[in-house]
Specification:
Length: 83
C-alpha cells in the first residue's frame, strides 16, 4: 500500500524532479511510483519532457519552470476519461 496519495505525489513531484525532496519523501514517492501506474506515467512523461528541454538548451532550468511544465503535462494526463 502506498503511504502517500496520488495528490501528494503530484504536489511533491516538482520537488522530486528538482532533487529538493527530503530522503524520506523521496522514498515514499518512489514507493508510490512503483505501485501506481497513473503517477508513473505522469512522472515518466514529465521527466522525458524535462530532459528534452534540458538537452536542447544545455543550461539549468530557471526556477519554477518544471512546476509549470508539470502543471501543463498534468492537464494532458488527467483528461477526463471513463477508465
Ligand atoms: Zn498515484
Amino acid at each position: 500500500m502506498p503511504v502517500i496519495s496520488c495528490d501528494q505525489v503530484l504536489a511533491e513531484l516538482s520537488k522530486f524532479l528538482d532533487d529538493e525532496a527530503a530522503v524520506s519523501l523521496r522514498r515514499d514517492l518512489e514507493a508510490h511510483l512503483a505501485d501506481c501506474r497513473t503517477c508513473r506515467v505522469l512522472y515518466d512523461s514529465t521527466l522525458k519532457t524535462l530532459r528534452i528541454v534540458i538537452d536542447s538548451r544545455s543550461f539549468d532550468l530557471p526556477e519554477g519552470v518544471s512546476e509549470r511544465m508539470i502543471a501543463s503535462i498534468m492537464k494532458k494526463v488527467r483528461l477526463p476519461s471513463p477508465d
